[in-house]
Every structure is written in structure tokens, then in C-alpha cells.
Amino acid sequence: AQKVTQAQTEISVVEKEDVTLDCVYETRDTTYYLFWYKQPPSGELVFLIRRNSFDEQNEISGRYSWNFQKSTSSFNFTITASQVVDSAVYFCALTEDSNYQLIWGAGTKLIIKP
Amino acid sequence: NAGVTQTPKFQVLKTGQSMTLQCAQDMNHEYMSWYRQDPGMGLRLIHYSVGAGITDQGEVPNGYNVSRSTTEDFPLRLLSAAPSQTSVYFCASRYTGTVNTEAFFGQGTRLTVV
Fold first, then answer.
1. Hey, are the CB atoms on B100 and A104 less than 8 Å from each other?
2. Would you say A66 and A20 are in contact if contact means Cβ atoms under 8 Å apart?
3. How do residues A18-50 score in pLDDT, each as one tens digit?
4. Is the separation of the CB atoms in A34 and A93 below 8 Å?
5. What is d(CA A5, CA A3) in angstroms, rounded to the nearest whole number?
6. Is the dihedral of CA B26, A50, B36, B111 positive or negative?
7. Cβ of B100 under 8 Å from any chain A Cβ?
8. Does B57 contact A at CB distance below 8 Å?
9. 3-state secondary structure of A54
10. Mutate which of B94, B100, B107, B110 to test chain A, going by most A C-beta atoms within 10 A?
11. A43: nearest CB among B45, B103, B108
């Protein structure tokens, strides 16, 4: 069965610190896709990244980076030099090629203190 | 581009009342879905549709009906509102062709049942 675990319920750091949000997934498919979404206090869901199971290259976008490791079934998200505007709930999600459903983690609430 | 348009943004219902949450997308996506998000929790799938005329139940379908008469529209009906249905509702659509893409979300509907 497919599952996404975000073990960190809440993380609080001081601005400019680096922070890593963990995501561990379970799937039996060999073809699958992983996603990260951001939900700021305003409530909308903002897409951040998609990664397919055949692309294990790490991704960097400005202060954001993602580390995909199939060996540990993890897709972790790091924010470098965090800013107050990064405060949000972050969700990791999984979909399998054989199934259209998105399986969501419970989310990690990130608090960046000034 | 409008993307996914969801209305209303806020709604207060009395127990036993019915209402319809509207969702429309202009991206010609076949797959559409409705989620509910309760405080401190992730997204739970209510109903989904893989194309016009095809709908199916998700994780928490009880008390909700859907229909999909066109590719663009996917309304969610609350038949007889209950306080347990107080939640934030999100509509989403995805392209599900040769590649599984990210989900595009509406702005959300904050529903309170009193």
C-alpha cells in the first residue's frame, strides 16, 4: 500500500537558519511521482516541485533544495537561510503511475521566528 | 488563465441545510477531485472523477454527492449538513495523460455548519 510519512509535526527555527523537512514514502510501483506543496497562513495550496521515480537528481531552486533518495524512500526538502515568509505548512505527496490518486502526508508546520 | 475556480470562499450553514460547492477548471484536465482539510490534518479525498460522466468515492465520501456532466465542472453537494462537515474544502484538477502532473487547486471554501 502507498503511504507518505512526515514525522515532523512542527518545526520552529530562527530566521536565517537552514531547515530540512523530512518525507518518507512507501509504494510498490516502480514508476511514481513525488510532490511538495506549501500552504501559507492565507490557506491556498502552492505547488513547489514534482519528481518522478526515475530522476534521482537533486533539485535546487533558489533557497529551496530537494534530496530524493530511492534507497531510503525519502524526498526531503531543505530551506537554506530561512525567512519569515517561509512560515507555512508543507505537504509531501505521492502518486503512482498505476493510480491517479494523490497520497498526502500529514504536513509539517514550519515556523520561522524573526 | 483562471486555472481552478472554486466558489464560495466562505459559507455558514445550519444543520440539515444543503448546498453545492462549485468547481470549474479551464485546463481541459480529465481528473478532478474534492478534498477536505481539518485543523492540523492533511488532505482527505472525498470524491474524484477521471472524466465526464465518471465519478468515484474517495476516503471520506459519506454525506457528499458529486456529478461530472462536463470536463470543466465538478460540483460537490452536501445533502444535509452536519457539524462534522465543518472544514476547509479544496477542489483540484490534474492532467493524467502520459505523465502524472501536479494538482492545481482552487482557493478553498471554509465551511462552518452550526
1. no
2. no
3. 999 999 999 999 999 999 999 999 999 999 999
4. yes
5. 7
6. negative
7. yes
8. no
9. coil
10. B100
11. B108
